[in-house]
Amino acid sequence: MPSFRGILLNKSEAGFSATLTDIDHAQSPADSDVEIAVEYSTVNYKDALALTDKGPVVRRWPMVPGIDGAGTVIASNHPQWKAGDKVIHNGWGVGETHWGCLAERAKLKGDWLVPLPPALSTKDAMAIGTAGYTAMLCLMALERQGVTKERGEVLVTGASGGVGSIAITLLAARGYQVVASTGKLSEEGYLKSLGATQVIDRATLSAAGKPLQKERWAAVLDSVGSHTLANVCAQTQYGGVVAACGLAQGMDLPASVAPFILRGVSLVGVDSVMAPQALRREAWQRLAAELDRAKLASISREVPLADAIGIAKEIMAGQLRGRVVVRPGD
């Protein structure tokens, strides 16, 4: 295949461009030892930033975006992988400093890949994507901190997004009492169908608040950051846990040390990009075993590669619910 279809990002004195085009195979990264046929990809928040040039995500130009991909190995110089293997890729700077998976082909490093669990299809894997994989890492972090369903309510912020939607589904399946925070109260029915017992307006958390507030949450899974993260820490019960994995509201944390030194609240950071292989494999095995496929189908929809740029604009405008699966091939 002398060329393949993909989205190519460029920036020059003339400005920024994101174009669906034919890409010469010779342009692909040379420092990779596995080539895959990408069967499905997706558009995450970080991809949306790259595709719209709304954040300093891309550090090398030109760039093929797409931090997630699932497909079949075509060629491999890596001892772990051979042609025909089904694999998943998440993170590792792909779509930022290394060409990504919003294309028909991707050349990646074998050390970055995990095997596709037999119970999942490549489409399932991208309906989950980094969003769902991050949600599972957060759940695992809460469990390591000893959070049990008997402790009380667990709050999920950014609930109608990809991380939030899958987090609600996973938590509810394990018997937690889940409260969903969203700016889209019209999605209450959707969120309750995933397992939320209550839906609250994100406006109650998004403005500056007191350093300590009335205790409510046994745990919080936060993908929003900024004032929202500060407020949920201030509302977390004595000895409770907050897992932070995102910055949709902002990267700042205008908080006080009060919740941590007066209530023993733990703030746990969750990183999906550079997470070690053992943690990744555990997360994907648990997703394959625990995630309700019917609910996953209700969370996600499939679009062709040509629609990915428009989807990115929807994400940045806060108009997207759940997950989008991108099909690079026809």
How are the secondary structure elements laid out?
Layout lengths: L2 E10 L2 E10 L9 E9 L2 H8 L15 E9 L9 E5 L14 E4 L5 E2 L6 H23 L8 E4 L5 H12 L3 E6 L5 H7 L1 E6 L15 E6 L3 H10 E9 L13 H5 L3 E4 L7 H14 L2 H7 E5 L3 H9 L6 E5 L3
Parallel strand pairs: 8-9, 8-11, 9-10, 11-12, 12-13, 14-15
Antiparallel strand pairs: 1-2, 3-4, 3-6, 3-15, 4-5, 5-7
Helix pairs in contact: 1-9, 2-3, 2-7
List keywords for this structure.
six-stranded parallel sheet; 28% strand; alpha/beta; 330 residues; Rossmann fold; seven-stranded mixed sheet; globular; 29% helix; Quinone Oxidoreductase, Chain A, domain 1; 9 helices
Q: What is the helix fraction of residues, given as a range?
A: 25-40%
Order of helices and strands: EEEHEEEEHEHEHEEHEHEHHEHE
CATH topology of the largest domain: Quinone Oxidoreductase, Chain A, domain 1
CATH architecture of the largest domain: Alpha-Beta Complex
Average pLDDT reading: 96
- Number of helical runs? 9
Just give the CATH class of the largest domain.
Answer: Alpha Beta
What structural category arises from helix and sheet content?
Answer: alpha/beta
Total count of strands: 15
* Biggest beta-sheet profile: 7 strands, mixed
Overall spatial form: globular
The fraction of residues in strands falls at 25-35%
Low-confidence stretches: none
CATH level 4 superfamily of the largest domain: Medium-chain alcohol dehydrogenases, catalytic domain
* End-to-end gap: 15 Å
Rg value: 20 Å
